[in-house]
Amino acid sequence: MKDILARISQTFGPSGREEQIRSQLIKELTALDRDLQLKTDALGNLIATKPGGEKRLLLAAHMDEIALLVTHIDDHGFLRFAPVGGHDPKILLGAKVVFANGTAGTIGREKLKDKEDLKMDKLFIDIGAASRAEAEENCPIGSMAVFAPHFSPQGNCIIGKALDNRAGCTLLLEVIRNLPAVDYQIDFVFTVQEEVGLRGARTAAYQLQPDLAIAVDVTCTGDTPEAPVMAVELGKGPAIKVKDRSLISHPQVKNRLEETAKLLGIPYQLEILERGGTDAGSIHLAREGIPSGVISLPARYVHSPAEIIDYRDLKNAALLLCSFLQHKDLFPAL
Ligand code: CO
Ligand code: ZN
Hints:
Elements: H1 2-9, H2 19-32, E1 37-40, E2 46-50, E3 56-62, E4 67-73, E5 79-84, H3 89-92, E6 96-99, E7 104-109, E8 123-126, H4 132-138, E9 144-147, E10 151-154, E11 157-160, H5 163-177, E12 185-191, H6 199-208, E13 212-219, E14 239-243, H7 251-264, E15 269-272, H8 280-283, E16 292-300, E17 307-310, H9 311-324
Parallel strand pairs: 3-12, 3-13, 13-16, 14-15
Antiparallel strand pairs: 1-2, 2-12, 4-5, 4-9, 6-7, 6-9, 7-8, 10-11, 11-17, 14-16, 16-17
Helix pairs in contact: 1-5, 2-5, 5-9, 7-9
Bound molecules: cobalt (II) ion (CO) and zinc ion (ZN).
């Protein structure tokens, strides 16, 4: 699983430009050889279907990552940009970024009158271009950059970029690898454009008409020095979502996830995320409403160039989801 995470976390895939990460995921799915039906929809969601009985379960993980979009190039070839997804200028300063064609750049800043002035519009990307023309050729207006790839397994942890949410994609691939025989259909969806408003998940849920949906994504933790208070820690097990800004988990779904974890002795935590949302936020509002829940992977420094997860949480999350699929009353009684 670490090799898969290393490959897919380092693949380029900003929101709305998911071609490279989608082809990498198709390669990984093909290598698993589980005979799933693959389809790419109009927005670019990758759907892998395991046909079964009448009931349908949707499992979603977003494959896009936050990015920077080139908006202006000055005479000296410095690039101004707009954020794609949630970025903090204080975290961007000094980061190395790469474009789809491999061009790399460093994020620099203008002279500030006051340190508090560090806003996005004071930052620029420096690709070392000698002129506007050179910059335009490599990184035209409208092109996107993401944090530069790197991957370091270290003790129980993994430090990397885009673990939000390639860790979730890896989790789904691991579930596919160990897929139990079940009597319902499962649609695994690697969604697009989550970071800009849970967009791919919305059209996926509409077309697939699931009876139940689970999203997998990362969540924040409260276990670093003077972190905002939050009862989630790295290495204490996958988090079962109670609520975030986009969703209040369906009580039966949340309870069944908890029951499964207890039954198997899988460590778990309950998550209340006060900022941010995830794909389940738009899925549960599709059509007549879809009972939905979320399994979250605790992660530090989410949306930074070097996020950290605990590999044991990832393994336990995959075990939890695989076991949940075999719950005897999986589909909520409505
Ligand atoms: Co995110
Ligand atoms: Zn995410």
